[in-house]
Fold RagB/SusD family nutrient uptake outer membrane protein.
Amino acid sequence: MRINYLIIGIVLLLAAGCRKILSPDEENLKTIDQMYKDANYAQGFLINAYRSIPGYYDNTDYATDDAVTNQLNNGYLQMATGSWTAANNPVSVWNPAYGAIQYINLFLENAEKVKWAADPEAAKLFNMRMKGEAYGLRALYMYFLLRAHAGFTDDGKLAGVPIITEFQTINSDVNLPRASFDACVKQVFRDLDSAEFNLPLEYTDVSSASQIPERFRIATQRPEVYNRVMGQYSRQLYNGLIARSFRARVGLLAASPAFQDASNTTTWANAADFAAAVIDYKGGISTLPANGSTFYDNNSEIDGLSGGNNPNEIIWRENILTSNGDQEAQNFPPTLFGNGYMNPTQNLVDAFPMANGYPVSNANSNYDAANPYVGRDPRFARYIIYNGSTAGVGNQVIYTGSASGSDNGINVRSTSTRTGYYMKKRLRMDVNRNPASTTGKNHYIPRIRYTEIFLSYAEAANEAWGPMGAGGHPYSAYDVIKVIRKRAGLGLGNGDPYLEECKTDKEKMRELIRNERRLELCFESFRFWDLRRWKANLRETVRGMDVNAGVYRPFDVENRSYENYMYYGPVPFSEVLKYSNLVQNKGWR
């Protein structure tokens, strides 16, 4: 883990730049004491922790049965095809996460001494808010550490990661053992409790003292002071609703099959309750945003965002990227001047049901292998560019066949698809990448979507209480999946009989829920982690489809080379070498 011994080594560059390279002026080397009188400097430690948050679109999809990439030197491709080791781990978060936790712990140990504002009421609120952010961010990083590095050791114990809640100095004992998985989860929950206590659920202006949440009235009863600290200007900072959402994420992870163990006390019912707390705040399942499944391409909504507001689908997001076309440059087909990085697989295409709700493998689906793209789940055409579909500002027809004569054809160029498909999700079709008339558009990258929480509830509730059980909540797993599928456009003309069939069978509902999660969250970097927490098949050969002159020819694209122990990621090899008390997960060397 990364240990920062000197304050000089972890401060942000908030001071003026040095006039001499490697010879900084003394006034530029800030100390802890200066943190107490410089609120901006103190807040910089939190800002640095925000900057290290793992990206939502991490493209781990390349290492799953949902996608491959034409970047043949890509780390995820190499990992999935046999080069994943404890010393070569593209999904490790160990060093950046512990580095961020160092900043957070330093901040928490000193926050009470900082003069946050001249107004004592505002100062008290600032202290509460920033401590709440810090606790929430520490929980966030522990979640990502557990997801990437928790697992069973050679002696059969379910281990988490070292729990570090104090700033480590040169005098600290840094040879720390891994805490149990359960202890780590409980530490996350404690931090989330602290975050929720110190933060409003959302940053919203108030107009009267009565609208100030009760726990903050001890600090102020003046709306103008509350709004200064907890109002709209703080939007997109960590808030109480984000803390609830991470509680739901941690609960789902901990309850999953990969982490079932007598030492783990988190249950499916806990996970369902945590997700329900977010859904209930939203207003129940009837409030699932109608346009939530196309959050990335709701152009007028995106272009109209201002003042830190979120679309209804979004709980947390990154800042707006204005006049941007990065995603399109990376993923558009070659004839739209893109690099075609993300290539959806036939495996994923086959997971989209027919519009009548039946899987394509079901005899009642009316699937026609000679016309495989007709009558499908509407999400298929929204999320994937296939042979004969249109894309881009001019609705260009995209031909992907190897003999199509198009640069978009399979393996024609280094930027062409390897599967016969291109990703459409995440992209705005009104972006123009033509060098002669390049035009970018506004984008945002999510951090948490409401749909994710709905799907988490459905999964946990089905496991805890069955398809129709609700555990005291006003909705069941069946109810949630029904609204998601209705929004998608499934079973609108026939009452979705396949869903009705599944509601009487927990195992069939489990597979349906997992498939809905796969479709709704495809290309959003969930599949890699879901397959592992489910202990599902990691070795499914990735397939493509070559379409030429109306003939559909399936073919194998890429084998997956995973071992069973790879359901759990490794502790970095370098850390195990350095620290004798760190025990590696079983199988990793």
In short: The domain at 7-273+569-578 is CATH 1.25.40.390 (Serine Threonine Protein Phosphatase 5, Tetratricopeptide repeat). The CA atoms of residues 8 and 29 lie 6 Å apart. The mean pLDDT is 94. The longest strand covers residues 551-558.
